[in-house]
């Protein structure tokens, strides 16, 4: 090989059980140092069509005909195949996202395997409604529902937890007997493609799982949502993108499930377990460099402990180990891209313009090595903003929070709910009565008390307001990914 012409990996589309290149390519960049790690081949409209047709064929074939126990057995095989390639998945996720290797090993990849196992278990054990209906003549009728697949499901996912969020949708879709065409984020194409390899090795029939790469508008994402043969669209990403997708799918009236953005609040009462709370809020603000839709960007702290809380969270932020994602002790990696870093830094500047007091961070860390070419920002804490400030209202999606004091429970509840989003909230108190009371007043899809991002995959997951439409998780996923046919029999 000539010097300077390093061979770069090619990430291809996966259609009908085969890896196929597209005509155009784009670069897959490692956010930790800005290096190009792969070229990705973009699917054009014809390739998206081929993926949907392959999925349709597989749906009409054995996958659509198999019974629940057979499909569940395949899902367990997929989970095993992910675990058999655990290190490859971790390495690919870390290279694509820049997330710390410790995080990908503890969260992303284990959750991918768990997603398949949980929905395999659920589809085997979940019953359906039946009602004995009384009629005036006394003969009565029996109503019972049966679950049928929708057909071909289009799945569009973001870059922050690429494999976790993809499999969170692929697993229940397949469990219910659908086939899928997925469009992973252009920033993180690797693990969806590795999953194709895992499925191929596990022997999943061709066409059941298809991957098309590319962007959103006028690219693979839009082509997929426009496709008349896609029966439902499930999407995780920004609220604005959700609005665009909704417009596109409206033309053909497809079911949609949207998991969108958040501007989540944490409420810290003076009676909290202080150490546990600081540690929990530290996770809620800084995990994955704040790039989790559930992260807390607004922290409300009861005034009597406000100064102490700010000081201790500042120490926590400043002691986080920022560094190479490959270092096992790294706690904070880079942001996903130069463009996203510019967005986050623009909010750091805006916070100052809006009159924030800078408690910690606000800039770019320096390393003196190749990481200086990466897309890092400092973990950042502000206080002193008005509740109407844009930095308090808009999702930033970085390792940053604003901390504001409150005096009464009512005030805290009001401030937490004063947002167009409604994804998640966390309440920190040792008074359980208060925990229940406040939790039940949160206008969100998920409220944690004395914890954050503690997940049971059987529970409803989703958001209110700008944070989404519908719920996935457990039975809610099974219901979204299937059509219920109620049968009424005159007895
Ligand atoms: P994004 O909306 O920019 O992109 C998500 C996906 O949509 C990508 O695959 C993209 O190519 C595709 N896309 C973009 N425009 C499209 C269009 N017009 N038609 C079809 N597809 C299109 O989101 P992102 O920047 O990748 O992810 C970050 C956002 O996702 C944040 O707002 C975050 O809060 C949100 N998010 C929400 C959840 C949740 O569960 N609620 C989970 C993770 C991320
Ligand atoms: C958003 O960034 C995180 C979403 C998490 C889930 O969808 C989940 O199932 O844990």
Main sheet summary: 7 strands, mixed
Total helix count?
A: 16
* Low-pLDDT stretches: 1-5
Helix content range of the residues, please? 25-40%
Question: In angstroms, what separates the terminal alpha carbons?
Answer: 78 Å
Rg, alpha carbons: 24 Å
Which structural class do the helices and strands define?
alpha/beta
Morphology call: globular
* Strand content bin: 15-25%
Number of beta-strand segments: 21
Task: Write down the overall mean pLDDT.
Answer: 97
Spatial sequence of strands, sheet with the most strands: 15-16-17-14-13-18-19
| Distinct ligands, ions and cofactors found in the model | nicotinamide-adenine-dinucleotide, (2E,4E)-2-hydroxy-6-oxohexa-2,4-dienoic acid
What does this protein structure show overall?
- By secondary structure, the protein is of the alpha/beta class.
- It has helices spanning 45-60, 62-65, 68-84, 86-97, 101-125, 162-175, 190-202, 220-226, 239-250, 274-286, 303-319, 338-353, 390-393, 409-417, 432-439, 474-480, and strands at residues 9-11, 13-15, 18-20, 24-29, 36-42, 130-133, 141-149, 152-156, 179-183, 209-211, 232-236, 256-259, 264-268, 296-302, 357-360, 380-383, 400-406, 424-428, 446-449, 468-469, 482-490.
- A seven-stranded mixed β-sheet has the order 15-16-17-14-13-18-19, sandwiched between helices. The protein has a six-stranded mixed β-sheet with strand order 10-9-8-11-12-20, with helices on both faces.
- Helix 15 (432-439) links the parallel strand 18 and strand 19.
- Helix 3 packs across helix 7 and helix 4 runs antiparallel to helix 7.
- The longest helix has 25 residues, at 101-125.
- It starts with 8 loop residues before the first strand and ends with a strand.
- Residues 1-5 have low confidence and may be disordered.
- (2E,4E)-2-hydroxy-6-oxohexa-2,4-dienoic acid (6OH) is lined by residues 160-161, 165, 168, 259, 292-294, 455, 461.
